[in-house]
Amino acid sequence: MTYGPPAQTGHPHPSGVRAERAYLDASTVAPLHPSGREAWLTAVSEGWADPRRLHREGRSARLLLEGARESIAADLGARTEELVFTGSHTAAVHAAVLGTLRARHRVGNTVVMSAVEHSAVLHGTRFAGETSLIDVDRLGRVDVSAFANAVSEPGVALACLQAANGEVGTVQPVGTVSEATRKSGVPLLVDAAAAAGHTSIDPHWDLLTADPRSWGAPDGLGVLAIRAGTRWLSPYPDDDGTEQVPGSVAIPAALAAAVVLKTVTAQREQLGHRRRELTHQIRTAASAIADTEVVGDPDDRLPHLVTFSCLYVDGEAVVDDLDRQGFAVGSGSACTASTLEPSHVLAAMGVLTHGNIRVGLPVDVRPEDVERFCAALPGAVARVRTMLGADDL
Amino acid sequence: MDELGHPIVDARGLRCPLPIIRLAAAARLAVPGSTITVLSTDPAAEPDIAAWCRMRGAEVVSQEWSADENGGFLRSEVKVSAAAG
Lengths: 393, 85
Known about the structure:
- The structure holds two protein chains of two kinds.
- Chain A has eleven helices and twelve strands.
- In chain A, helix 3 (89-103) packs parallel to helix 4, helix 5 (144-152) runs parallel beside helix 6 and helix 8 (268-287) packs parallel to helix 11.
- In chain A, helix 4 links the parallel strand 3 and strand 4.
- By secondary structure, chain A is α/β, with parallel strands linked by helices.
- In chain A, the strands form three sheets. Chain A has a seven-stranded mixed β-sheet, with helices on both faces.
- Chain B is globular.
- Chain B is an alpha+beta fold.
- Chain B has helices at residues 18-29, 45-56; strands at residues 8-11, 35-40, 59-66, 73-79.
- Chain B is 28% helix and 29% strand.
- Chain A binds chain B through residues 291, 293, 309, 311-315, 333-335, 340-342, 346-347, 350-355, 388-390, 393, and chain B through 15-18, 20-21, 24-25, 28, 42-44, 46-48, 50-52, 54-55, 85.
- Chain B: Belongs to the sulfur carrier protein TusA family.
């Protein structure tokens, strides 16, 4: 079975290839899983009413919403009543950070975090508090003892560590860091945006955020879980909705997220194993290209991500070359971002920020597409180097 | 070249990866063990010059931002090794 965007004929390419599309950019947004499409359609028909109403239509919507909450909570290792739905992952992170800063303002306003957190964690903190950034090593893994020292300082309201990095795939030592935060009495926010649905999540969090789009659910939903007993106060105006944050929930998105998460969680080991083998093939192919560094931890990593940087290559040009050959990939290079700033993740790791390519394999990735990609890659890199006059450097 | 004969790569206004390509081209012509100065404005040049040095066995002697009328530039001093380029 295949899903995702329909196969299209590519734009003309210098090599003359007119290829079928292969979507290999499932790092933050995966193609919609077919089980999610069905669930979404069901909820559009049966869950459109206001879930707070007492009539049959309202009850039907409420049933779908609460069913989705129970299911997602169970798959993420939370209790049903701990789960809060927001409009997006960004909104969930902002609610987690700002709500903790509000509840713990007497303690202080410092948020300790790794230098490679999601930009929503950085931006949310800068809006209302002070960041204390903890260095990572060349593989992107946070310095545990520096983290522990930082959370033991006075004035720390919150600690934040991602379950795994969404740009380079490295899994973070959440268990060890949680021992330090617990000892210091500082709540720990674990951002599982990249990991949820792909690996199991260490349960030692006080707040958890997740992004359903990364496991193949439609847009329009963010997930926040707040452990019972964690000090948190909504940072927004009061509302009389179903959630602890204002606004209504997109029930079709919630049901679809629940159904897809259930499906991919049931197949997690098999999907992980299959994609780990395919990302290994890409690692091998990329490593064989001159002056190319595969970045992130080679073993303790997410199964579906692989990232590498090619010296003397323009990230935008290589993404464009591959796109015209039928491959959609991502990049952390500055020229591909909306800002001129290079990826803060790659810079913090001390690896090249230019010439970066990020591959994220969707659950239904076809081995033949990965094979074609590995074959196309050296030519794409060589063409860009020639274009830049960097052939013989 | 400056007055002491050290090569200067002026990559101000150039975007990634051009400053690194200019540095590599200068390193190929440089005497092993000598120092190259790179002037740049692209924020990506700071981490990328350091990463290039690591990959090429060169050494970052210093990296310092200075202000000028155009908003500032980075001055990097790089010591090239025999194998650099």
